[in-house]
Amino acid sequence: MTATTPKATSITPAFCEGIQYFGDAVPGFETYGKTPAIAEGAGAIADSADPAAVFQTLLAADALRYLTLQITGSKASGHPGGFASQAEAYSALVMLGHKNILTEVGHHAPGFYSAMFLDRSLEDMGIENVQQLRDRFREQHGLLGHLSGYIPGILAPAGPLGQGQHFAMSAALLHRDKLFPFTMGDGGMGEPYPMSSMAHFHTAYPTVTNFLPVLVWNGFSQEHHSMVSTKTNAEMIAYWQGNGFEEVILVDAKDFDDKQQPGDYIDSTAFSIQQRLAFTQAVLVAVDRAAKSALGGKLTVFIIKQLKGAGVHARGAKSHNLYPKDTLESQHIIDALKGRALPIEAWELVRTNCERAGGGPAAKTAVTEFQLPLADLGELPLEEYAIGGEAKVSTTAMGRLVGKVGESDRAFIVTNADGNEASGIANINQALKIIHPTTDDLYNQSPNGQVYEPLSEDACAGLAVGLSLMGARSLWCSYESFAINGLPIWQTVTQAMAELRRPTPATITLFTAGALEQGRNGWTHQRPEIEAYFAAMMRNGNVFPLFPPDANSIQVCYDWALTTKNKGIVITASKSPLPIRTTFEQTKQGLEKGAVVLQEIHPPQPLNQGEAKTEIETSLNQGQAKKVVFAVIGDMTLIPVFEAAVALEKAGIGSRIISIINPRRLYRSSDVAWDTCSEPDGGFISDADFDRLFSGDALIGVIGGASGMLEPVMLRSNCRRDTFAWKRGETTATAGQLMAFNGLTAEALKKRAIELLN
């Protein structure tokens, strides 16, 4: 077909404003394009073999390619090549009425935005024509470079590879009657996580098969040939079968090539119109079969094999993204746009089909456009222990509540890669049971359990945060040392929650077995540097690391976390029996103000010259009585601090021990991007309250992890101050020895306090 520069006419639809080129009539349009293949009120085509449906699916694919290239070209930036190579598959899904489409590939964003434009979803954010689509692509408050739930009709974020399957599986688990296809590239397939996580999920939930991987096998990754580009079709099919997929459906563009293109990966847009339609029909029929298979109980994958960049400005990895030279004025971009240009009547037909598909725009029909109904938890049975009474294990106290949550909410899932028993929360397994095909009471296993235990932190974090993003409750449990392997997707979802257009339960974690408890295991199990990760994320506005000092506090922290929306809440606690130091009321205050006073020793009257034991103590007591403030994060770290307070009292020095429970509250309001969050939380401690807590003659921040978590205190304090924090791991027999290796001893704290005061 040929293309021309558009002329303003009275018949040009308003949504087409901004389209640079319209094409001449498409051969066959008079026969197959006069009536929309999706009838009004139908939601999908009636027959995947219908020639009119095939013809209009091809038009939709070319419309997607055109828009993808034009909006990326408008900024000489973005990624058109990967999406272009599977445009027929995406169009087929839409024509078949499936709108809950996700992706594992953030680089498919411009294609997804084009689809949301065509079905009118983007009108919810004021994008009504192609010019506005171009203007707001990759701009603030517009269409960000990679996908996010901020965009109407988009179900989940997509950025780092290896994550999309988690969102699709989570949605499938919550909505058994709907299909959740997700596109994944053959570059992303090289990540270790997608296949293993899908295999474990299928073992745990063999009847939940209504998620559909759509492998875009185009031969290239971002900058070179993909690592699976040398596989034969038979090898690729065997690979998926070997990973548990019963139905592997592959359509190879090469089988339809009538232009003698070289190589294993072929561009279908170069075919004759007859062969383009033949290829599109094969895709449409195969996608229909794959969808029915997945919804019918078989683990299914659909594979479309077509050259990367098919139908856009370049082919192979060179089509992956645009550079400053790739503008709408560049000849190669102009030629590519003209090659994909459609006549006005074709644009109108495509838009009608896209709008009708699935019952309306994705922004009005996708499952994530609605709040998921949640079970009523009632009032959790918190048990308050007496201060100074028997030592209790914090994680076990929380585990009892977790079991109650799961009993009330059967959609609630707990995930753990390293085993709940090892973290002092065997009571979770006893109450909710580990999901396993083998029933075994000794190991608390049941096919209908609610504890998901793959040996992968990515899979643990992925399902837990995916469920939260989709609107359900969940809890990810991990050793603090190993959680780093699951944090990328936790961060992706928490960041996305900050801009979601709907409230959803916070994604909650419990990180146990802190570094200080892992002496004999050595440095491999001592990695509290993870706290620096959360310390940095606190400034996002919706991230709340919580550090309950005891078994009372952790219950109140978890109870509060369950009531919050669109937050990322990290609870870190030890699995050792520790003293009870707080009441419930104190933790409520700590959650609101950030910290509470655990103990205050007023400085005694100055010692006489002859009673002083050291020159430093003599000099201190010749003047005004002094007080040192200990700002402590954690539970085990309180032990040497309380010992130091006793030693300081004997030296004639007062002290105040502060337990920091919710450090994010200790920032100044201007430090945190809280007001940019969709569910803003602007709670920060006032200057007056901060001074009442932390004012003294010297301040020492103490943490068994990364010192960055103490930043809000150090920013606001005007005292002479210092920090005691984690340095490095080592093999030791006790927590005390490990703290000593890191300088966290009562003697060291006392010595530094006196130095600061002097």
How would you describe the overall organization of this protein?
The protein is α/β, with parallel strands linked by helices and 758 residues long. Helix content is 35%, strand content 13%. The chain contains 26 helices and 22 strands. The strands form 6 sheets. A 6-stranded parallel sheet has the order 12-9-13-14-16-15, sandwiched between helices. The protein has a 5-stranded parallel sheet with strand order 3-4-5-7-6, with helices on both faces. Strand 19, helix 22 and strand 20 form a beta-alpha-beta unit. Helix 2 packs across helix 12, helix 7 crosses helix 16 and helix 19 crosses helix 20. The N and C termini lie far apart (86 Å). The mean pLDDT is 93.
Coarse structural class? alpha/beta
Helix share, percent = 25-40%
Number of helices: 26
Question: Over the alpha carbons, how many angstroms does the gyration radius reach?
Answer: 30 Å
Give the distance, in angstroms, between the N- and C-terminal Cα atoms. 86 Å
Coarse morphology: elongated
Task: Give unreliable regions as ranges.
Answer: none
Strand composition percent: 5-15%
What does the largest sheet look like? Answer: 6 strands, parallel
Write down how many β-strands occur, each being a DSSP E stretch of 2 or more residues: 22
Sequence of strands across the biggest β-sheet: 12-9-13-14-16-15
Mean pLDDT: 93
